[in-house]
Design goal:
Shape: globular
Number of domains: 1
Helix content: 40-55%
CATH class: Alpha Beta
Strand order of the largest sheet: 3-4-5-6-7-8-9-10
Number of helices: 14
Radius of gyration: 20 Å
CATH architecture: Alpha-Beta Barrel
Number of strands: 10
Strand content: 5-15%
Order of helices and strands: EEEHEHEHEHEHEHEHHHEHHHHH
Distance between the termini: 39 Å
Structural class: alpha/beta
């Protein structure tokens, strides 16, 4: 395992991080606590020392499991968690008042609860789970950050950036000097952060945490038109309609990246992310120990060859791979937008059926809305 410094923090974190969304259960059917703890231990044993979690991952369950695993491990593990938006809406709609999303009292309350669930006295890194740059000049979030740092309850702060991934997204916040790291979607099929965020992060020494490097499993090469996901799971929603066939066809066109025996498409996708100098760590789910072994090996292999990176060249403002005969990718990507109405219909059904009550229900419903926005956003970018 190789390590990189996270911005100005001085934290030397593993190139591969443990994405702890899946171990929280809820959306991820089949999550088992003991298996999750074993996977965390396996990842730590392989050199992974960075974990990304959040209060809404299993309504706090993920944080609790991460806390147990870290307490059992003798070495240094860096944990990043988040502050959920108070209105439980992902992403934040432009014009939403900061007071409805991140008032100072809410940030502090969320911090105290995360400290308790994780069983620590200080959070290594805390991210605001949504962001609008129009909030950058307002004081409440800044006052909360400064107070928590002064009290020794949080060492570093940052942002988790959602869709749409515009080139200057997060720039105003970074300009305040209070942002130590940004978490953003970045993968072979979504390269928008290269246009603005990554150069700015290098200039300002802001750490970059990559999320969704495998596009929720689409870049593993293991999804086929016949793949069946557990009913009600996140993956059932994400790969609804004809998208499994589209993904299988697009993944097949990336097989040129598998140059040595034993290479996997997932490893190539992780290595693509690590090839950019702005990237500090790439977090990905690994609910089973063999996932941890496969992911950790990507760091050992190093960046992709320059020839492969050239073949995966992006089109500015479109973030779409056009490599090795991938002419049909644009049509496939546009097709994903057709699934949004079905997804949002399911949200309505959940709410009308009484399953949208309580914080967990609100989180699930709004996450589905965010998923619909992600799909529609990609459609607009690629038309």
């Amino acid at each position: 395992m190789r390590y990189r410094q996270l911005g100005k923090t001085g934290f030397q974190v593993s190139e591969i991080g443990f994405g702890a969304w899946g171990i929280g259960g809820a959306w991820w059917a089949g999550a088992d606590d003991e298996e999750s703890l074993a996977s965390l231990a396996a990842a730590f044993d392989l050199g992974v020392n960075f974990v990304d979690t959040a209060p809404n991952y299993g309504d706090g369950r993920s944080e609790e499991l991460v806390g147990k695993a870290v307490a059992r491990w003798p070495g240094r593990i860096y944990v990043s968690t988040k502050v959920n938006p108070m209105n439980f809406k992902w992403p934040a709609a432009p014009g939403t008042p900061l007071a409805e999303v991140f008032p100072k009292s809410w940030i502090i309350e969320s911090t105290e609860k995360s400290l308790k669930r994780l069983g620590v006295e200080c959070l290594d890194l805390q991210l605001l789970h949504v962001w609008l740059d129009e909030w950058a000049g307002q004081d409440e979030w800044k006052e909360a950050f400064l107070q928590l740092k002064q009290q020794g309850k949080v060492a570093a702060f940052g942002l988790s950036l959602n869709y749409p991934l515009e080139p200057d997204y997060g720039a105003e916040a970074i300009a305040t000097g209070l942002i130590d790291a940004c978490e953003t979607t970045y993968n072979i099929w979504e390269q928008a952060p290269e246009e603005g965020l990554f150069p700015l992060a290098l200039e300002k020494r802001v750490g970059i945490i990559v999320k969704s490097p495998l596009d929720e499993g689409a870049l593993t090469g293991k999804i086929t038109p016949e793949t069946v996901f557990p009913e009600g799971s996140f993956l059932e929603f994400y790969f609804s309609g004809d998208r499994r066939r589209e993904i299988a066809e697009r993944a097949e066109r990336l097989k040129f990246l598998l140059r040595e025996e034993g290479d996997t498409l997932a490893q190539a996708a992780l290595r693509f992310c690590l090839s950019h100098p702005a990237v500090t760590t790439v977090v990905t789910g690994m609910r089973k120990a063999h996932h941890a072994r496969e992911n950790a090996a990507a760091s050992d292999r190093g960046p992709l060859p320059q020839a492969d990176l050239a073949a995966l060249a992006r089109r500015p403002r479109h973030g779409l791979v056009l490599a090795h005969g991938d002419e049909g990718a644009g049509e496939a990507a546009r097709g994903r937008g057709r699934h949004r109405p079905a997804l949002l219909d399911r949200v309505v059904e959940q709410r009308e059926g009484g399953r949208g009550t309580g914080s967990a229900g609100r989180l699930q419903a709004h996450a589905l809305e965010d998923l619909g926005d992600r799909v529609a956003h990609r459609r607009r970018r690629r038309q």
